Amino acid sequence: MKIAILSTNKNLYSTSRLVKAGEERGHDMVVINHKQCYMNITSHNPSIHLKGVAITDVDAIIPRIGASVSFYGTAVVRQFEMMGVYSVNESVAISRSRDKLRASQLLARRGIGLPVTGFANSPGDTEDLLRLIGGAPVVIKLLEGTQGVGVVLAETKKAAESVIEAFRGLKANFMVQEFIAEAGGADIRCLVVGDKVVASMRRQGKEGEFRSNLHRGGSATLIKITPEERSTAVRSAKVMGLNVAGVDLLRSNHGPVVMEVNSSPGLEGIEKATKKNVAGMIIEFIEKNAKHGKTRTRGTG
Fold this sequence. Notes:
By secondary structure, this protein is α+β, with helices and mostly antiparallel strands. The protein has helices spanning 13-24, 70-82, 91-98, 100-109, 126-133, 157-169, 227-240, 268-274, 278-289; strands at 2-6, 28-32, 38-40, 47-50, 53-54, 60-63, 86-87, 117-118, 138-142, 151-154, 174-178, 186-193, 196-204, 219-222, 244-252, 255-262. The chain has three domains: 2-89, Rossmann fold (3-Layer(aba) Sandwich), CATH 3.40.50.20; 96-113 and 182-263, 2-Layer Sandwich (D-amino Acid Aminotransferase, Chain A, domain 1), CATH 3.30.470.20; 117-179, Dna Ligase, domain 1, CATH 3.30.1490.
């Protein structure tokens, strides 16, 4: 099978691990920089080109789309879907998970635990918005942020109002969430492949840091999750429509709450913390499920 990884950097840990895992299982692995692709959008013979050559012989793709290029990256994934190429995560599912507000609304609709979350537009709504959430401290998040960037903890009402007004002045889209103090600056990353959690780790933020992202100096350790946490992670990935997802949970006083569902989860931290071959599990999932034309979205949405 020829499997293409859509990635802007073939030397990234996750990309290189997927290449190695695929080659070890006998597949022809290629890395395609989706930012350099261009497309011929036509009804009868849609195609994708790179450096003057049409890409025609790919059986499956693994999208590793960065948040900064979600729009163009998902357009490339959608074009592959139009060509009948199997994508482990489809374009609509990636778009759903990237929009934090849309994702939260979809998860809430299915009864999945979330921090109390507010979203508003008018500057006059700030005080009531904070009251709806339960008051300070609150976490304020840019909708387009990733890896902890654009996430602010406002510990007082005055601080929250100042941050909200600043974000509004920048015409940025953001949401406000309750601060789960009992989590102690730690979260749980569950790596979901198909319909099960294949690996999980506890990420602890460095001292004085409420964000637990490994990119921000957090540490990762192996953790045993509860059946409720396992079910929440699998259901969250399913609501998004993702076959491969990193689901971030917090342990709150009222059970697990979902912070984010990531469509391109990094593999380095979780493979090192759990000693599991997650990349190999993703390739195995593709082996069992990839089939020409097996795209639920048919390039639409």
